[in-house]
Amino acid sequence: MGSVIERASSGRAKCRTCGQSIAKGDERFGEALPNAYGDGDSLYWFHLRCAACSRAESFIPVLEQGQAAASGAAELLALARETIAQPRLSRILRAERASSGRARCRHCRELIEQGAWRLALHAFEEGRFNSIGTIHARCAVHYLGVEPSLERLMLPSNQLSTEELAEVVASMREGATQPIQPGLAKTSADAAAPDEESESSRKSS
Ligand SMILES: [Zn+2]
Ligand SMILES: [Zn+2]
Fold first, then answer.
1. What ligand is nearest to the CA atom of residue 104?
2. How far is the CA of 105 from the centre of ligand 2 (A)?
3. What architecture (CATH level 2) is domain 88-184?
């Protein structure tokens, strides 16, 4: 069994990237991966745009075979090639407002203040996506290496209005103009704030 692009014969399959259903009749990417529970391969389903954003290496060869003549194939291919060029782009799950002020940014390692825009990240391991934390929207360009295109922020896992999307983009662009360096991983022992203060002031002096 190989990977395929085909029209969904039912609306029951969920996309592995965004977690949303794939509508009956929509084109979908089925990636052949080793079955976690037995011998052989199983097909893991993705929306085409989700596959281009997050499963580019396996998606491109199937797309290039062209047998499926996927609608928008040229745009999908461009998106997938961008993913290969900047692999961290594949980690974007969605943009969201921080629900608490307790999570640290994976880039700068500072706390993300409650209500601030952040990007939730995930990584594909052993057949499934797992959360790998969040980054400030303002740190996104520094962390990802490039400003993510709107297609990546408009996957079905994003429930953003046009205004919210504009706020996320503005935050990313504003952050891109600042010299935000990657921070060091913090342990619970770092909770003593004075140490952090003196450390950062030493660095900046
Ligand atoms: Zn999807
Ligand atoms: Zn940050």
1. 2
2. 5
3. 2-Layer Sandwich (3.30)
